[in-house]
Amino acid sequence: MPDAYVPLLADFVLDAGEAAAVAIANNAADPWNFVSADPAEAAALKSAKAKILAYHLQRHSDHCCYCRGNLHGAGPYMTDREHILPKGKPTFKPYSYTMWNLAAACKRCNMQFKGQSDAFVVNKTDATKFQDGANYLFVHPNFDRWEDFLDRIEAAKGGKRVVGFEFVSNDPKAQYTHTFFKLQELVMDTFDKQQRAPTIAQTSELGREVLKLAEQHRQRRA
Ligand SMILES: [Zn+2]
Q1: Largest CA distance in the chain
Q2: Distance 116 CA to ligand 1 centre (A)
Q3: If you measure from the C-alpha of residue 44 to the centroid of ligand 1, how many angstroms do you get, rounded to a whole number?
Q4: If you measure from the C-alpha of residue 183 to the centroid of ligand 1, how many angstroms do you get, rounded to a whole number?
Q5: How far is the first Cα of the chain from the last one, in angstroms, to the nearest whole number?
Q6: Is the pLDDT score of 198 beyond 60?
Q7: Residues with CB under 5 A from ligand 1 (ion)
Q8: How far apart are CA 98 and CA 52, in angstroms?
Q9: CA of 42 to the centre of ligand 1 (A)
């Protein structure tokens, strides 16, 4: 299994109680939504799910694995534990708690576009292909490095914001991801051209750098 992020999936650990609770849930008809009648077991499963989410957020620097929207401090109403092979399909249920099949996504990408779709899976029946990035038409949240395919440029200041996406690679995965998650809908630029330069440029070195990138991006789009 190739792993494109750190900390490595191979280094993820649950404590004994959490691992036991996951094993029990995996035997249930609906593993992910299983709630144990035993309060300690239920608490252990909840703890395992929290650890899984925190780990995946760390791997993606608190960004959505699909659109790179900010999830830092976003909390449960904006953040989803994402099952890449959808947990609602019987074939993929066994991967409900499998780390390479999990990620952290924003509600928009998960609920609005991803849902229970498996249209992005090339071979949906041969389980030996499920851990191969080439078996996924979009940028896989664990096997592919998002920044090798796309770049999200974003800057905000004084109530104004610029958001854009650029293709870093000609790989069809970049275009597929852009289309599948309708990233074009997120593109915006409300900066006033005259006001922008002095205000942001004065704030910091980073501010100047971001401004320069945003301006370059804006010019390329024009
Ligand atoms: Zn997203």
Answers
A1: 63
A2: 16
A3: 28
A4: 9
A5: 41
A6: no
A7: 64, 66-67, 69, 106, 109
A8: 10
A9: 29
What's the sign of the alpha-carbon dihedral 12, 18, 20, 22?
negative
Cα 30 to averaged position of ligand 1 atoms, centre (Å): 25
Please report the pLDDT score of residue 155 as a whole number.
83
* CA 48–ligand 1 middle distance (angstroms): 23
Query: Cα 222 vs. chain centroid, distance in angstroms?
Result: 29
Categorize the per-residue pLDDT at 194 as very low, low, confident or very high, splitting at 50, 70 and 90: low
Which pLDDT band, with edges at 50, 70 and 90, does 162 fall under? confident
DSSP string, the chain: ----SSS-GGG----HHHHHHHHHHHTSSSGGG---SSHHHHHHHHHHHHHHHHHHHHHTTTB-TTT--B-TT--TTTEEEEESS-TTSGGGGGGTT-GGGEEEEEHIIIIIIITT--TTBS-SS-GGGTT-GGGBSS--TTTS-GGGTEEEEEEEETTEEEEEEEE---SHHHHHHHHHTTGGGG-EE---HHHHHHHHHTT-HHHHHHHHHHHHHHHHH-
CA of 78 from ligand 1 middle (Å) equals: 10
Residue 195 has pLDDT above 60, yes or no: no
